[in-house]
Please model this.
Amino acid sequence: MAFSGDRQAMNKNVLVKTIQSMNQHLPSKRLNLVDLLAMERPGIRGKDNTFFVMDKQELGLISQSLPRFLWSRLRLPLLIEMSPDFGNGAARVQGEVEVEMVSKILGKDRVHEKQIIIYLPEVRELRRKLPTTTQYAFITNLRDNKVED
Model:
């Protein structure tokens, strides 16, 4: 039925617009740790033009968690990706250096992966330790799921 498809397309558009709105705080470009440490007032501008100042003590904690040769590869703010696709109360962090840093900060075994799934207690701990250098990003998978009539 054509009407059903139109409704699904409209619902997807509403969902996309809602998620874009929820992500307006995200930066259009993230900076590496070396550049942020060199700044007098470290921070980043969000897509909504808000300037987010990053705490120097947090940057210090992060720099202690990684060998210096990786500092130029770590992009901040760290994005904690929230999606129902990861399961209830789960979030994802992507990037090899980002995963290494999160593992170290949370006291987890070091994993040599490009992403890590963390759960609500770990998300809370990460945000408690790094409130100004982490941000939530809301994502969803909009693939078509076949619905049986």
User: Anything to note?
Assistant: Confidence is low (pLDDT under 50) at residues 144-149.
